[in-house]
Specification:
Number of strands: 109
Number of helices: 34
Structural class: alpha+beta
Distance between the termini: 59 Å
Strand content: 25-35%
Amino acid sequence: MLASSLPTSFLLLVLLLSHPSHSVDFIVTSDPLVRWVEEHGAPLSHLVLDPKVGHLYVGGVDHLYQLTSDLEMMSHVRTGPYLDSPDCLPPIVPQDCPSAQPTHNHNKLLLVEAGQEDGPGGLIVCGSLFQGICDKRSLSNISQLIYQTTNPVDTQYVAANDPRVSTVAVVINTENKQAGGGAGGILRLMLVGRGYTSKGPGDIPPITTRRLSPVLPPRRAFSQEEDLGKLVVGSYSEYNNHFVKAVAHGNHVYFLFSRRDMWHKKEYRTYASRLCASDRSFYSYVEVPLLCHGGYNLAQGAWLGNHSGNTALFIVMAAGQASTPVATGRSALCAYGMAELDAMLRRAQEVCYTEGGRGSSGQEEAYIEYAVSSKCLKLPKDSLSEYPCGGEHTPNPIASTVPLQATPIVTSATQLTAITTATEAGHTIAFLGDVEGRLQKVLVRSDWSGYLYGSIMVDKGGVVRADLLLDNSQKHVYVLTNRKLSKVPVSTCERQTDCQSCLSLRDPYCGWCVLEGRCSRKNQCLRHMQPNHWLWSFEPTNQCVTVQSLMPSNQSKDEQTQVTMLVVQLPFLTEEESLSCVFGLLPPQPARVTATSISCQSPAPELLPPMLKGRDHMVLPVSLVFGHVTITTGHMTFYDCGAVSRLNQSSQCLACLSSVWRCSWCPLDQLCTHNHSCANHHIVLTQRESPGPSSCPLVFALQSSALVPLGLTSTVVLRARNLDVYTDEAQYVCVVQIEGVQINLTAAVERRPDNTHIFTCSPHQFQNAVSQLQYSTAVYLRRGERRIDISPGLRLQLYDCSAGQSDCSQCRAVPEEYGCVWCSESPAPGCVYNQSCTSVPANTCPPPQITQVLPGSGPLEGGILVTITGSNLGMSYQDVVGGVTVAGVWCQPQPEGYQISTRVVCELQSSGKQREGPVLVTVGTTAPGKSKQIFTYQDPQLLDLVPDKGPVSGGTRLTIRGRQLLTGQKSDLRAFLGPQPCYIVEEVTDSQLVCLTGPSNQTGEVSLRVMFGKAEKSISNVTFRYLDDPVIKDATPAESFNEGGRVVMVTGINLDVVQQPIISVWVEPLVVQRVKRRRRLALLTANQLVFNRTKTTVSEHCSVLSSSQMTCLTPRVTPEVTVRGVWFQLDNVRVHYESIKGKRFTYYPNPELFPLNREAPDVPYRFKPGGVIAVEGQHLTRAMSRQEVMARLGNQECEVKTLDNTHLYCEPPEIQPMSVDDGKELPSLQVFMGNLRMDLGLVQYDSDSLSIVPLAAQIGLGAGAALIILSVLVIILIYRRKSKQALRDYKKVLLQLETLEINVGDQCRKEFTDLMTEMMDLSSDVGGPGLPLLDYRTYAERVFFPGQQVAPLSRQLDLPESRRPTVEQGLQQLNNLLNNRLFLTRFIHTLEAQQGFSQRDRGYVASLLTIALHDKLEYFTEVMKSLLQDLVQQYVVKNPKLMLRRTETVVEKMLTNWMSICLYSFLKEVAGEPLYMLYRAIKYQVDKGPVDMVTGKAKRTLNDSHLLREDIDYCSMTLMVLVKNGVEVQPCPVKVLDTDTITQVKDKILDQVYRGAPFSQRPAADNLDLEWRSGQAGHLTLSDDDVTAVIQGRWKRVNTLQHYKVPDGATVALIPRSQSSGAVNQVFQTGEKTPMLEGEEEEGLRLWHLVKSSEDPEIPKHRKSSMRERERAKAIPEIYLTRLLSMKGTLQKFVDDVFVAILSTKRPPPIAVRFFFDFLDDMAEKHGIDDPETVHIWKTNSLPLRFWVNILKNPQFVLDVQISDSIDAVLSVIAQTFIDSCTTSEHKVGRDSPVNKLLYAREIPRYKQLVERYYSDIHSAASGCYQEMNSTLTELSGSFASEMNSLVALHELYKYINKYYDQIIMSLEEDTSGQKMQLAYRLQQVAALVENKVTDL
């Protein structure tokens, strides 16, 4: 066992237990209620509980565990792996069982057998090893064996030997009817249900009875005895029951299982079957389908539980995937009452016993299942009561057609896998496990509805196993998952600490135990029977014990009173029990209970906590306590009256008497108190006594004005009331507070008759440093030290007339009560208080003064606002109404814009004509004010706008030209394009206005309008066109270097709509990047949140070339930044690069070029004319191509020929260029890459290649020696010169080849564009009816039996009617024999051992077997795997790399067929479409050029051997073909060539007319004539051969359109061929699509079309040329290579699409491929093959070369199309490329390589990577797809089996049996297992039936 990896903080306890074989980690999580333990042996499968002692037993793979109820391990046993094979019977002897290997033992059964008087019980353990035998172990220690057999017999095979096949069992006790049955006559049996297994013994029934005890010799434990009974079935494989549960209930045993409904719709259903426990013969077997509404048809787990006192079967069911046994995630819980189930089963028995299976309505209600020879009868009516468990005379096994129905209790979107139930306080609770490791809790209500109330994640990602158990105490659930066993509490009541959280749990287990103060289960609460003591959390009406009211709810903190609480839901108490009250944290007080009210004493004042500062009350909790348990809590308020007055100093009495609390005011003591009397019997004012707050002593008003002028002596007079309460002689003082300074003024008192007092404060001159018109200040009255309350809001208003009143109008506008006047006689004129003015104040103000007028111009129509600023512009708005004129025109003042004296805003009125003049403002009778500015009425004119179009998203910068555009202010100007605004963005000049267009909701022309205020101007006959937004479809390249300047070619539509396109790059400083990364790690903030605030971009303008093209130069970025994004800004349209290409635009560091002389950069580089200059560098092609690089040597270009990652080759001029630098004689080499300019040094041409022999050497030597040395030197120099010349020539050839391919690339792009245009129409058809896929039957025929005229699928069994039934019976028995694996493998091996059994026979037999076993593909797959294992064994000894290389054995052809079956849906859904597109692209390209009808050679091809090398003069032409469409005849244009033969023309016409139809549905060209129609009566029938054919010598030319001189645009029609037609007969042979003309060879004439076949263009005419010339002739001339390259480049996308579709892992690879690759990996691992190349070869041989190459070369296997020789030649090259891509050997090409390999030399390494990634992705993906594979195979078996003609296939197979009959019989008789199964005997029976063969029967 392994510990789970939890964080340390989650571990409370780690207990390590040791064991000799392994260690155990026991872990308790931080939740002490949840425990779990992780174990070896995943996946764990079974869990059982010993109910007596509570021990747990867990079974898994190779491991068995015994644990205590607390998950402590007691014992552990290893049960595997051991040497075994499902094909062999135990005991396993390696010599007799070659397929045996170490095999894991999966636990299949784990049962507790209870002890009896005759002996102790035991643990029954059955595994998948040794054909599923069982042993019995001690319950106290599982390591002690009670029973185990070492030599089991075939009757002891119990469990399924396949881990995927289910097995269930139940132990029962029954009466022993035989003598000597043992003590007490009790027989203990085990009833076992198991599914069908394709390996091992195939005759074990689905349900068998096994003996447990007593076991007396010769009896054996676990044996299946004749007298114990079994469920007999006719076909084991058809009735493959998937068992889920077996239970005993009452006197019956029930089995729950799912299987395909063989009676009705062949859909999978769930069934419940029943047997009498005492029934030894299974006479009582009856089953009924279970229907769970909602499509839930597959049982996953079950539990026999209780509901409302009745037993019920709870089942979790899942919805099946289509018609397969594979469960989906959609699940439900359904329950079936056992009484209803028994009634349904009895009804089925009764109907089958007494009514012949039909109910009262005549409908069939019951029938006999399992294909046995019994039928429903009409026995006496009392038969069922007489024979409730059936008898020999009763029909069986019975099945009901009427299902037992149930409505789901709950449903789930996650697949449910397990169920157990519990009963708590009368409620049924279901615990459900699911595939995600979650435990879900459901309350099952009495009406069978459910409520999911809880969910716990027990083991995330682990599937909960079906064995979900409750412990003996019913407090915990044991949950078994793949690796863990967890102990989960059924509830978490204990976690809840208060009543509210407990009730909010909504857990049926939980409730609040009131007097115990805890959340508990009902039976844990002592008084749960009494009312209000236990409150159930699931009852929505329940509420906690609550305090409804508290009396009093508040009281003074200074008093103590009796408090009464009214409590709801108060539990009942005895007289001896009492409650207490607790206030806050104070000691408890005894409480007195009276019904629902409780009384207690409030705490003493001194015990209360202190009041918080600034508060006048506090709230204390009041708890009701029973012992130490708080039952409920209320809240009480304690207030402080003294704090109320302290918090309101200005009006303490008012605050006291107005308070929400019960407070009184003592005026003499200046005290707010809770008492109703004052100290010393002083007067008290209370709230309750009238007049309440109005009785307070109070200054309630100002007798004098509240307005007090500053700087002038003023007297303040106050009025007060209720002052008679004061009897002392204290003095009154007026207090005025100005900015924190108190001014005390003595007060004279005057009493009034109405009991009020007048206080006259002494005069005072108030001052304030702050200059403002008005200042509010506090004033109050003080009597001695007592402050008299003052009415809220009673304040003095100090004011200063001169503050802010700068002119006469402003001064006179001040309200009259202030007394401000304009005094002109003071030292300076100003605004003063009227008493301060020494002269007579001014009655009128001076005339207005105007300082500014805005704007200075306006339109003739008016409508704009004119703002006039100045002084004395009136005292109010009314002063200027009607008094404003602008240039002599009245202007309407606006009230909202008027400011007293300083501003007038008026609306300009229409002038009718252009005029100018000043602005006049008249106020009253004074003279008008006149502006110095002159205002001008203007008439602006719009002349034109540029540009006149833009995108519908807006953003176009529109320039509007005109005159007098600067009329009004900018804010008055508004521009519109139709209804959309155009936003003005620049300062407006008199002649120009610039605006940005807004977005429009539609395209089209709109007019321009400019509003000058209310004046609207437009341009006649000029509109702006909103066009569709630009769309960028492609932008290449996707890389640049930092320096930028690289040209990005952008293609799209509507690009010319944009005025100024921009390419922008968003960059970030690297430092910020690091900060961001740290911040992201620390704060987990989003990327863009950090940088959007400081986004930095660099941009470059783009150049628009046309509507579909523009170029952009990449902006320069510095190395110090990182690029975050690149986009194109097309006015308002922003297109991010990623959205175009699906990848980011990448910036790389700049490429580097090294100086020509790296060692001495200053020394000139010596260059020999005629060669190339090689420049070294690095990263040259990372973001640059050859075409973009420019090199200059001096003043001339150095033509760049080649560029790779590290070298640049350029060819300079033959003559040394001039230098462009005046200071240097020699030219320098400069290379330009975008914005990069690199100077690589000076270059000096060598004028003479011969070195001069040193003169000193000549003088020093004699004449003879000098001549010899000179001769030697000359020879050496000539040799060196020739060598250098050869090297230069080689480099030139390389450059020429590359230049050739580049030139071809341009041609390819043009061809590709044409091809894509043609394919666009085709693409819309593909995927629908336009994809001409063959139906499965035809596909299978062509793949299984290639080249055969009549495949077995299309034949019928050719037999006399008299023999047919017998032969068919024999063939059916042969079919049964083929379903025996031993027979089938012996049969195949025997055939392959025969000498006369040819390779063709092997393939034929394999395909026949495929058809015969097509309805059992799972079995077929197992046999194929077994045979492949034998094949691997053979090749491992020889050479493993050669395995599966060819199809030399039966199993290899079986593999081909298997792949074809499994990949049909993949072809249909994924690969078919790109394959069809490739075919159409090839056909289109081939047909565009001439194709020789006789030789099949074409001008456009990939295959050099099929290349038409002659230059054929041809031209394209269009024929108008008359096509009948209903009643109308319409002309259809068809493109043909003038060199096409008539048959070729007919084919092209049919291709065009029937382009959407499959080939088989088209009329044949041979059955039609081509008729040329000219004029009204001119009809000429054209044919390949007629009397007009041209004959030259022995050559006869096939007629073409050119021959008939058919013009371009001619009208033709296809008409049915008349019998008398003289057309040439054409014969199509299988595999050859080129029509050949017959009959000419007899006449000695040879046919030719474009070239005469005897003239081989590959052999030059000059046969007697030299050897060198012959070698040169072998090479393909440049023009031919150009054709191949052009064709290759044009088709490249379609080839890529097919290869990617086949080899892409973006979608999950087909399950068959994953399954088979897993199998090959297992085989390699088993045989110790660790060479990855070998496994790669196996996978390549099994899938790409075995299946895909076949499909690529023969698309007609999948598609309903015709493959001509010219198309076949192209497909062969592509298929060979696919083969080369799948090989592991390095792909080397040289001058002798085939042209086909040279063509794809650059692509093959890329394809190799695709293959390797495909293999590695499948290998690295999680395995375990066997179950999914089997489900797929089952589905395929059902889907296509009906289309297979299995009887014909069986009859054909029998012919081989007949041919090698004796050898096969001998082989079967030699095999011991075959003897046991009597296989030879059964084959003899077949022979006797099929052909009356006399046998030894």
